[in-house]
Specification:
Blueprint lengths: L1 E5 L7 E4 L9 E10 L2 H8 L2 H6 L4 E2 L3 E9 L11 E4 L2 E2 L5 H4 L10 E2 L11 E5 L3 E3 L6 H5 L1 H11 L9 E4 L3 H12 L5 E5 L2 H9 L4 E4 L6 H7 L6 E6 L4 H9 L1 E9 L11 H6 L3 E4 L7 H12 L1 H8 L2 E6 L3 H10 L4 E5 L2
Parallel strand pairs: 11-12, 11-14, 12-13, 14-15, 15-16, 17-18
Antiparallel strand pairs: 1-2, 1-4, 3-5, 3-9, 3-18, 5-6, 6-10, 7-8
Helix pairs in contact: 5-6, 5-11, 6-7, 6-12
The protein binds zinc ion (ZN) (2 copies).
């Protein structure tokens, strides 16, 4: 089968022919139809410090996908051949304290597909039955491929109650845009999104943000607050950029008692205005991944009941590239003038 492989330590990827993965007794073999490109995949291709410290090549990369079940192991009972599925890409140990408490997203030995074991940029991927999420038969393939990042957006956006709250989203990548749409869906009052790319801010506006702000321009977040009649600061912050300046801007624009959910991963440690965090009595919560599997139920239900949210989520897909032309997908993702880039493996 075709697979996009990190063959050895160092930059680059190779599209090559590899043996199909074997389906174990508790596993499901999936024919990949669509796969989404993530920031993680860019880091792996360029081989930055994180990738060098984490990956053990050779490895099939990729973790965001949608596909069709072609084989199930003899002990699989809940997943059937022919079903359209996505999968939670974190495979947990089941033995650590958090796993045994049912808090699988906090597993101390979690292993990610496309990072710690073979992933989904391939014709076939094998997943444990417990990780497979079955979609309705008429699921839109692009939206199906978004369930992994939509899970990040959902888990982050729903970390704190949003009804009637003023929400600041820093970073208008696909996850930030989807989080803004979710915030509006669940009843936030004002949702303001910041970024440095007008292209991405247009996506946020289309997804329902009340106000978008390019922080490289003349207007500050404080100006934006005044423009929409806010007087006291944001109640909720959703940090999606990993940019130190965005985090400090957010802290400076929160109301007293404000709550911040942080998903954006910074490249390096950086200074924070802790005096403001303390005297403004802010709560800061780190977020990684998504809940297994409550977030999956929540996002599936929200898409099912809200055509508006469904359209907003589908709207973050801006590029579809044939898998054989995979360098074009990386080029589009690196350009910054993109939302989610999807590879078509069908
Ligand atoms: Zn991802
Ligand atoms: Zn565990």
């Amino acid at each position: 089968m075709r697979a996009l492989v990190k063959t050895e330590a160092g930059p680059g990827l190779t599209m090559m022919d590899v043996p199909e993965p074997i389906c174990g007794p508790n596993e499901v073999k999936i024919r990949v139809l669509r796969a989404g490109l993530c920031g993680t995949d860019l880091h792996i291709e360029e081989w930055d410090d994180w990738a060098a410290a984490t990956l053990r090549p050779p490895l099939v990369v990729g973790h965001e996908f949608f596909g069709e079940v072609v084989e199930v192991g003899p002990e699989v009972t809940s997943v059937h051949v022919g079903k359209k599925v996505s999968a939670e890409g974190h495979i947990v140990c089941g033995q650590c304290r958090n796993c045994r408490a049912g808090l699988r997203q906090l597993c101390i030995r979690t292993r990610g597909i496309g990072v710690n074991r073979d992933g989904a940029f391939a014709d076939y991927v094998v997943m444990p039955e417990t990780n497979v999420w079955t979609h309705p038969d008429d699921m839109d393939p692009d939206v199906g491929a978004l369930f992994d990042p939509l899970g990040n957006a959902t888990h982050t956006a729903l970390m704190f109650p949003l009804v009637g709250e003023d929400v600041l989203v820093t970073g208008a990548g696909p996850i930030g845009v989807m989080a803004a749409a979710i915030a509006k869906h669940v009843g936030a009052r004002h949702v303001v999104v910041t970024d440095v790319s007008d292209y991405r801010l247009d996506l946020a506006r289309a997804a329902g943000a009340d106000l978008v702000l390019n922080v490289t321009g003349d207007r500050s977040i404080a100006d934006a607050q005044r423009a929409i009649g806010m007087r006291e600061g944001f109640d909720i912050g959703l940090e999606m950029s990993g940019a130190p300046s965005a985090v400090n801007d957010m802290i400076a624009n929160m109301n007293h008692g404000g709550r911040i959910a942080m998903l954006g991963l910074p490249k390096d440690p950086y200074p924070i205005d802790w005096g403001k965090v303390i005297t403004h009595m802010l709560t800061i919560k780190g977020i990684y991944g998504r809940e297994m599997y409550d977030t999956w139920y929540k996002m599936a239900a929200m898409l099912q009941t809200s055509p508006t949210l469904f359209a907003a989520v589908k709207g973050v897909v801006t590029h579809r590239v044939n898998a054989d032309d995979w360098p074009d997908a990386w080029a589009a993702a690196r350009s910054g003038a993109c939302g989610k880039v999807i590879m078509d493996w069908s």
